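User: Okay, second chain of the day. Same drill as before: sequence in, structure tokens out.
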Amino acid sequence: MARPHESVVDGSPARTSAQPQDLPAVDRLLRSAAGQALLAEHGHTLVAGQARALLDECRAQARAGTLDTADAALPALAEALAARIAARLAPRMRRVLNLTGTVIHTNLGRALLADDALAQVMATMAGPNNLEYDLEAGGRGDRDSLVEELLCTLTGAEAATVVNNNAAAVLLTIAALAHAREGRREVVVSRGELVEIGGAFRMPDVMAAAGATLVEVGTTNRTHARDYERAIGERTALLMKVHTSNYAVQGFTAAVDEAELARIAHAHGLPVATDLGSGALVDMVAWGLPAEPTPQSKLAAGCDVVTFSGDKLLGGPQAGLIVGRRDAIEKIRRFPMKRALRMSKLPLAALEATLRLYLRPERLARDLPTLRLLTRAPAHIRAQAQALQPALAAAVAPRYAVAVVDTLGQIGSGSLPVERLPSAALAIAPVAKKGAGRALDALAAALRALPLPVVGRIADDRLLLDLRCLERSEELAAQLPALQERLA
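Assistant: Same drill. Structure tokens below.
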């Protein structure tokens, strides 16, 4: 005899829809053996809240006729409750495999921290630390002192300070130096350097937010020394250079270098600041990479202040580094906005450890992950791809085919935007041409849904997994059974 809400097909009960009254009360679910185990592990607040939410959703499904009777049973509800709790406690920020071909990927966290930086964060954050305590003097200290001496040693600067990112470094520098001279708020910048970076960070907007008046000189492609000379007046506070790190103007161009600009500024008693953005602390050419300007070269050219990032080519945590002449840095350090933009203890610990790596430049390509990934040999990457190809092909068959291809990646995060890095990739293409776009989107989604999400890029009707940033092949290989199951 069939139970209520159940039909009979060929003499056996068929799956039917549950009714709202079939669902247990919250208290009954919590009193079950599985519920009691969850309460013991997680406490009443979380478990009860998730149980109520689960049963509310189930009742809505039952009223709509979409809840199966099996799913309304106590064992199934307990299992669903455990899954909800696990999902609620799972971190939103997760490690992923960056197989996009972009080494310093803004959306994927930019530079990877070195082992020394990770160790120092763990060691100093596990208990109280001397963030603002002078151990030698036995009194209050300055958090800048943790990294200032290192920055001065590495760049040749007289003084240094740090804030939470380079946008903040530029904002603070302009605000402090433009307010340092009474009645002077004008900052002179070439039109060809009014950059916009990701997230709609625009130099004119930063000027306005800093309380400065932007004075544009020259044209988009050509700016001359006389343009700066003509723009200087009684209200001029600062001359500024901005390194166009995320684009390049080529062809009929002209620009004034920092040495000439410093000569002009200092002749009028004005400071000059330059924003490098990407912030390489070493000559990248020494490792076979394209040249990138360094803070050392800009300070040597006469710049009073240089700002740059900590989490791009420098290979450290997110930070805005400000180095330069002592008097200019002191004005910046004392400006009230500085406290609102200061770095916290975790990135400071990581930054100090990262900077120490530069004291041993001969080991840098081994110890600094960013430089290590940028300098991987294309032949080694291709061999790695060839070794992984058979297993990946088996995992995505028969819907997809896999080939090893040469490709070009990029440094990323606005660093050396027109330069490309020779690399190798696993190119996955749908076997059926019809619906290829949907098939690639489905594959990309399946890769992102893996326990260790895999992020590649779609180009030329293929999904490319560029292996430049995959140092351990087993991390991808271990995911292939789960990928095969998802695609089945």
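The radius of gyration is 29 Å.

User: Thanks, on to the next one.
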